[in-house]
Write a structure and sequence with these properties.
heterotrimer, A alpha+beta, B alpha/beta, C mainly alpha, A: 3-stranded antiparallel β-sheet, 16 helices, globular, B: alpha/beta, Rossmann fold, two-stranded antiparallel sheet, 41% helix, elongated, binds protoporphyrin IX containing FE, binds NI-FE oxidized active center, binds iron/sulfur cluster, binds FE3-S4 cluster
Chain lengths: 558, 374, 245
Amino acid sequence: MANRIVVDPITRIEGHLRIEAEIKDGVIVDAFSSSTMVRGIESIVKGRDPRDVWAFVQRTCGVCTTVHALTSVRAVEDALGIAVPPNAEMVRNIMEGALYMHDHTVHFYHLHALDWVDIVNALKADPKKTSEIAQSISNWPKSSPGYFSDVQNRVQKFVESGQLGIFANGYWGHPQMKLPAEVNLLAVAHYLEALEWQKEIVKVHTIFGGKNPHPNYLVGGMACAINSDGAGGLNAERLAYVGKLLKDGKDFIDQVYIPDLLAIASFYKDWGAIGKGFGNYMSYGDFPTNGYADMSGFKFPSGIILNGDLSKVLDVDHRNSEEIEEFVNNSWYDDYAEGKDKGRHPWEGETNIKYSGPKPPYDFLNVEEKYSFIKTPRWKGLPMEVGPLARLLVGYGRGNKEIQDAVNGALAHLNVPVDALFSTLGRTAARGIETQLVANWTLEFYDTLMNNIKNGDERMANMDSWEPSSWPAEAKGVGFMEAPRGALAHWITIKDQKTENYQLVVPSTWNASPRDPKGQRSAYEAALIGTPVANPELPLEIIRTIHSFDPCLACAVH
Amino acid sequence: MPTEIEKRDTYYESIIKQGYSRRDFLKFSTYMAAFMGLESTMVGQIAESLEKTPRIPIIWEHYQECTCCSESFIRSNHPIVADIILDKISLDYTLTLMAASGHQAEAAKKAVMDKYKGEYILCVEGSIPLGDDGNYCCIAGKSAKETFLEAAAGAKAIIAWGSCASNGCVQAAKPNPTGATPIHKIVKNKPIIRVPGCPPIGEVMAGVIMHVVAFGRLPQLDRLGRPKAFYGKRVHDTCYRRPYYDAGLFAETFDDQNSKNGYCLYKVGCKGPMTYNSCGTIKWNNGVSYPIQSGHGCIGCSEENFWDNGPFYERTTKIPGFAVESNADTVGKVAAGVIVGGIALHAVGATISKRKELSDNIKRAKSNEKNIDL
Amino acid sequence: METRNFKRVFVWELPVRIFHWVNVLCVIVLSLSGFLIANPPALISSAEATNLHSFGIVRFIHFAAAYIFFFNMILRVYWSFVGNKFASWRAFWPFSKKTWSNFKHVLKIDVLLFNEKVHDEKNISIGHNSVAILSYLLLFIVALVSVFTGFALYADTANWWLPKLFAWVTPLFGGDFMVRSIHHIAMWVFILFTLVHVYLVFYHDWLEGRGEVSSMFGGYKFVQEDRLRKAAKAEEAEEKSNKYK
Ligand code: HEM
Ligand code: HEM
Ligand code: NFV
Ligand code: SF4
Ligand code: SF4
Ligand code: F3S
Ligand SMILES: [Mg+2]
C-alpha cells in the first residue's frame, strides 16, 4: 500500500506550497502540488489606470521583484503601441540581469544549499584542508585556513548556544548528505558571504529604480532621467556605481557561486538521473538587444521542446488562443461558463475565487476534487516546464553558440552526459550556468548604455502616448519575459482608458499547477515521480527536487 | 501517522548511524533539546548551557505576502543580517530561510512557543484573510488566523512587518477579494509595532529589532503604532528636492528637461507630502538612493490604503468612498455647474412667479416717487 | 394706493460686518492659494531654486490666511455672546417653533417660489432667516473641518503649540492622504456655499427692497413701521403684565 505523506510548509521557497506524495517501497509513485494562499491581484487591478498596474502586480512577488513590473509595462506598451527608447531598454535589461544574479545566487546558497550541505558536519572539517580545496577551485581571496577556522568557530559557538535558529531541526546527518566535512565548511562560509554579498548587487535597482525590493518602473521607459552634466539625474557618478556593482557581482558569481556549484554537484551526480518529469520545455525568450519588437535580437531565444528532443524547437505565439490556455478544473475557482474541462486564453481569462477544499484544520487535501489555488496553464494542451533549464535547452536546440558552449563546458567539467540535464541536478546546474551568462551580458548592456549616452542620446522615456486621451477606446496587449523562474506573461485588455481585464500566467503557475482535465501532471508533480525517499519522516529528497525548480508560490497564484 | 516520539527516535538514530561521535551527539542534543523539548529525558547533563541568557527568540510568520519584507530585511547593512541572526536574535521560525520543512518546521515553532512563552517576539509578514472562514491562507493545514492567534497568545510583543501586516496592502485594495486584514484588527491585547512600507527599508527593520535587543524595550510609537524614530517625518519634509517644491519648479512630465534637472515630482504625482517614512533620511539599500532620487514620485507605500488613494501619476484628491476614478475637483466642478444652473432656473422662476409682487412693489415705488416733494 | 412706511433698523454691528468681510477675504485667498497648492501651474522661469520661492510664498499666504481665518472665527464666536440679538448665538438656534415655522415659510415662498395669499410682514426676517441659519451652521462645521484638517496637516512641520494641538486628527483618518482629501473637499463646500449665498442675498434685496446687500456694509436694514409699532405695543403689554404679577 502506498503511504501518503504531507510536506507543508515547504520552506526555503517563496510562498505557501504543500506537497502530498504517495510513497511505495521507498519511491514516490504519485504526488500532488498545491498552493494554499490566494490574494486575487487580477481582480484588484481591474478598473485601474493601466499606467498604475505595474505597481500593483509587482507586489505579486518580492523575491523576483521587478519581473511583474517589467512584464506589465511591456503589456501596456504593447497594447498602446509604445516603443521605449534604447536607453530604457538597456536599463531594464541591466536591472533584469542584476535580478538574475541576485535571485539565482540567493536561491543557491540560502534556499537550496541546505538540502545538500550539512552545517553541523562542517564542525568536523579541517580548516587547512578546506582552504586547500577552496584555492584549488577558485581565485577568491577569502580562502585562508584562518578564515575558515574563524567561520568554524563562529558556527561552533552558535551551535553551543543551544539556540539553532533557522538551522534547528534541519536534515543534518541525513543519509543523503554526502559532502565531505571540508566542502560543507566551504559552503557554510560562502552561505554567510553570499548573505552579505546579495545586498550589494541589488543596489543596481536602487540607482535606477529608487529602491529594492520593488523598484519603480514607468510605462514608456524608465523614470530615472539621464543628465550627464547635471546633479539631477543619472550622471557619470551614478553610472560608474552601476558599473562597479555589476563587475563585483560578476566576480562573486565566477569565483564563488560557480566553483561551489560544480564542487558540490560533483558529489551528487546520482541526482542527474532523478527528477526528470515529462521533458517538455518552454521559453518565451528575453533580453532584447535591438528593441523588444525584434525577437531575433534576444539573448535568450524563444521556443518549445517536446519530450526532450533537442533537435526540434517549435515556436510559441502568445496571441493565439489555440496555444496558451488556462484551466481551473482542479483549482479553487468558479468553473468557466463553457464547462469544467474547457480552458481559456488569458485575454478571456477570469478569476473568481471559490474555495472548495477541506475546512481547516485538515490533514489531507481531497485530491479527487479541486486541490490548489494555482490555475493550470497548457500549451496546445500540453504541460510545459519552464525555468533556467528550459531556457538553456531551447537555446541549445536553437543552436545558440554561446549557450551551447556554456552548457557543454559544465557537462564536461562534471563529466556527465547531456541526459543528466533532464533532472534535479540539471535544473540546479542550469541556474548557475545561466547566471554566469547573464552576468556577462549585463556588462554588455551596460557598455551599450554608456556608448549610447556618449553618442548624445539621453532619452529615457517615450511619453508620446502617456495621456489616456490619446489612447484608442479599446486595446489589448501582451507583455512577456523570461523571469528567473521561467516564462512569464501578462495579458491586458484596456477599455475606456481603464484596465478591463488582466491575467498573469507565471512561471511557477506552469510548474506548480495541479493536473489538467486530461489528468496530465504539471512539472512539480511529474518530477517527483520516481524520486527515492529514504525516510518518509524526513522528506529531504522531496524538497531537493522541489527546490530545484526554485518555487515561488506568491507568483504562482497571485 | 507516526507520533512525535517515533519521529524523534528515528531522527536521533539516523544521526548516530551517520557516524557522529558521542561528543558530537551531546553538542547536537543541546540545541535539539531546545527545539524538541527533550531536556528532562535525554540531555539533562548539558542543561547548563541552556541556562545561558538566550538570544531573543523570534517567530516570523508569513501569511498573505510577497516576501519582499523578508527580502528587504536581508538587505540591511547595519547590522548585516548574518550578524543579527547569528549573534543578536534567534530566528527560530521563518518559512523563507529555515532549514526544516513540514513537520520539522512546525515542531521547531511549537518548541519555541512552549519554552519561551511570554518571551518571544512574533513578527508577522503579510495580512490575514478573514473572508470565507480564513480558507484563503492555510499553512500546515491550519488557517492563518488560527496560527496567528496561537502564536500571538504567548508572544511578548508583535511586530507587523510591512504594509501587508500593518495595513493590508495590495490584497486589501478594492475590492479586497479575500477579506485581507491587518493584524492589529485581529489581536488587540498585545503591543503591536507597525512597520509599514512596501516593503519597509531594510535598515529600518533591523533598527526596530536592534532597538529591542540593544535597549531591552520596545521603541516609542506614534499614534498609529509606528516607531517614532522612523516614521516621524513625511518624505516631503526630508526630501532633497524640497527647494524646488518651494520654488515652484516642477517636472511637468517624465524625461522632460525639468525632470532631468531634478525638479520636484509633485506634479507627476509624488505622494511624499502625505507619506511618513525614512526614505529621505536613511534612504534605501545603505543610502544609495530612494524613489524620488531616481526620478519616480513616492507612491506613498507606507501609508494606509495607498493603493486606493487615487492614481499614482496625478496630484488629485480622491473622494473618500467614491468610485476609483472620481476626484474631488471633478465632482466639485460638476456640483458648481449644477448649482449655477439651479440658480439661473431659480432666478427665471422667481421673475415669473413673483412678477405680481414685484410689479406691486414697483407700482408702489413709482407712486411714492411721484409723491416726493422736492 | 397703499404706501409702506419703512424704518431703518440697526441689524449688523460693526464687529459682525468686519468678521463677515474678513471671512470673505480669507475664504477667497485660502481657496485660490489652496487650488495652487493642489495643482500648481507650470512656471516659466530659468531661475535656480535658490533664488526662487514662489511656491513657498503661495503656501505662506495660505497659512497666514488660515490663521486670520481661524482667529476671525473665534472673535465671531465671542461676539455671539456679547453682540446684539441678531448676532447672538440664540439667532442661530435652530430648534425653536418659531424658527421651524419660518423655515417652512422660506422654503415655500423663497425656494419653491409659491406666492402668499395673505401678506404677513412677520414672515419677513429681520436678521437671518431660518434657512440661512442652517446654511451658516453648516458652514461653521465645514470651517471647523478645514481648521482641524488644515492644522493637522500643518502640525508636523510647525514649531508652535497651536497647530500641534491638532496632531491627533491625522491618525483618526489613518494618515495624511485622507486628511488632505477631506481638507480639499471642504474647500469645495465653501465655494458651493458662496454661490448660493451670494445669489440669495441679491435675491432678497431685489425682491424685498429692504437693503439686504448694503446691510452687510452699513449695518442697517429696513422694517415696516407698523411691524415695529406692533412689536413696541407687545413689549409694553408684556411689561405691564409683568408689573401686575
Ligand atoms: C485654519 C484653516 C486652514 C489651515 C490651517 C490650512 C492648512 C493647509 C495645509 C497645511 C495645507 C497643505 C499644504 C501643504 O501640504 O503644503 C493646505 C492645503 C490646502 N488648503 Fe488649507 N488650510 C486651512 C483652511 C483652508 C480653507 C478654509 C480652504 C478653502 C476654502 C483651504 C483650502 C486648501 C486647499 C484646496 C489645499 C490643497 C489641498 C490639496 O492638496 O488638495 N484651506 N491647507
Ligand atoms: C466667501 C464668501 C462669503 C461667505 C463665506 C459668507 C459668509 C456669511 C456668513 C457666515 C454670514 C452670517 C453672518 C453672521 O451672522 O455673522 C453671512 C451673512 C451675510 N452675507 Fe455673506 N458671505 C460671503 C459672501 C458675501 C457676499 C459677496 C455678500 C454680498 C454681496 C454677502 C452678504 C451677506 C449678507 C447681506 C449677510 C446677512 C444675510 C442675512 O441677513 O442672513 N456675503 N455671510
Ligand atoms: N514564478 C515566479 Fe516569479 C519569478 N522568477 C515570476 O514571474 O518568483 Ni516570485
Ligand atoms: S508590504 Fe508590500 S512588499 Fe511587503 S509583503 Fe506586502 S506587498 Fe510585499
Ligand atoms: S519630490 Fe515629492 S517629496 Fe520631494 S519635494 Fe517634491 S513633492 Fe515633496
Ligand atoms: S513610495 Fe515608499 S519607498 Fe519611500 S519614497 Fe515613498 S515611502
Ligand atoms: Mg493568473
